[in-house]
UniProtKB/TrEMBL annotation:
Cofactor(s) this protein requires: FAD
Gene3D superfamilies referenced in this protein's UniProt entry, alphabetically: D-Amino Acid Oxidase, subunit A, domain 2, FAD/NAD(P)-binding domain
Protein name: malate dehydrogenase (quinone)
Gene source species: Sulfurospirillum tamanense
EC number: 1.1.5.4
Keyword Secreted appears in the UniProt entry: no
Amino acid sequence: MSQAHYDVIVVGGGISGAAAFYELAKYTDIGSIALLEKYDDLATLNSSGKGNSQTIHCGDIETNYTVQKAGAVKRTARMIVKYCLQYGYENKFMFAHQKMAIGVGDTEVAYMRKRYEDFKEIFPYLEVYEKEKLKEIEPKLVYDANGNERPEPIVGVGVQNEYSTVDFGAMAKSLVENAKTIEGKTTDVFLNSEVLEITQEGSTHRLTTRDGKSFTAGFVIVNAGAHSLYLAHQMGYGHDYSCLPVAGSFYVTTKMMLTGKVYMVQNPKLPFAALHGDPDILLGGFTRFGPTALVLPKLERFHGNKTVIDFFKTLRLDKKIITIFYDLLKDSTIRNYIFRNFLFEIPYFNKRLFLKDARKIVPSLQLEDIEYAQGFGGVRPQVLNKAEGKLMLGEASVNPGTGILFNMTPSPGATSCLGNAERDVKLACAHLGKTFNQEAFNQDLTD
C-alpha cells in the first residue's frame, strides 16, 4: 500500500474544500498540502453549477436573515467578489445581475418596507421598487397572461447592478488551480480517492482511500458534505448531531422571463428558502425557479442508491431524532409543506402544483413555459442537534481538538467558503505552530 505524509490534508473537492486548499497554500507557511476528492473531477456534487442556485447570498434580499446574520454573511460574501475580481473572473464565471426580494399583498409589502428601513444601513445600495418601477425593470412581475396588472399590491427591494451570480463549480476549480501555482509549496490533488477510514495515530491522522492509498497528516479538514458527519461518527465524534439530507429540485423556463434574481418573503415557520427565480448562467440566462425541498434517504443526489446505507448510519435514529421529527411534523404549516414538496417530484402533478407557486413571482407563467430541470439540484446536509432537540439552520462543525475538523455546510455554505476556510486554516496553523498571514488575506479578500 502506497502512503504519503502532508502537513494538512483536505477531504472533499467542492467549493469549501477548494477554498481551504487555496488559503492553506497562499496565506500560510505550511509547506505540504493534499486534497483528496472522491470522484474523477472537482465540484461534481452540490458545488457544481447545476447543484445550487448560483447565488452569492449576502443577506440583502434573503428575508430569512436577521440583521446580525446579514452583517456576518456580508463579509464572507464580499470575499467571493474580491477573489473573482483579483483574478479577472468577472463575466467568466461571476456575473452582475439585477436582484430583489418582492412582497406581494398588504402584509408582505408592509414587511418589505420595514425590512428596507432595518437593513439599509448595512446595505446602503438597496432601493425600493414601486409597481411603476417594476413595470420598467422587471415587467413579468406585474402583468398576467392577458396583459392586465396583478390586482394585489407589490413592492420590490433590491439593487440593479451588483455581483450576485457565480458558477461555484468553476470557482472551485480555479481555487485549486491557483493554489497549485504558488511556488515553494507541495500542493497535490488526488482524484478518485474516496476516504473510507480515518484513524488517529499519536499526533497525526491516517486516511485510507478506496483505491488503496494511505496518507498521514498533521491536520485534517473534512469538507465532504453530508459525508463529513458520516466520517466523524465513524471516529466516534459528533454523536449529538444527525443529518437530514434535503434535496432541492428546480424548474427552468423555455424562454426568457426575468432579467435578474427575484426572491420572495420566506415563511418564518419554514426552515427552507422560499421559491425564487434566478437567471441561470449555464442556460443562457433562462430563469431557473426553485428550489423545492424533499427529504431523501441518501447522502448524494444523482449517484443511485449507494449512499442510502450511509444515510441511516449518519441519521442514528433514536428517541431524540423521533422527537425532533415529531415536533416538526406536528406543525400543520411544515407538514403541508413537506407533503407538497413530495408532490413536486411526481409526474403530471409536479408541474401544475409548481406553476401555481411560481405564479406568485410571474403571474403570466403558463404550463408550457416551464420544464423540470433534469439533473439539477443537490443535497443539503441539514443538521439535527440532538442535545438541543432541534433542526439547525446554519453551518455545523465538529472539532474534537485532536487536529481534525468535520464541516457540514448547508446554504449559504458556498457563499461562506472563503470565510469558513479562514477560520479552519487559522485552527490548522495554531495546531501545527505555523503562521497565517492575516494582513495579506485582508488585503486580497476583505474591504
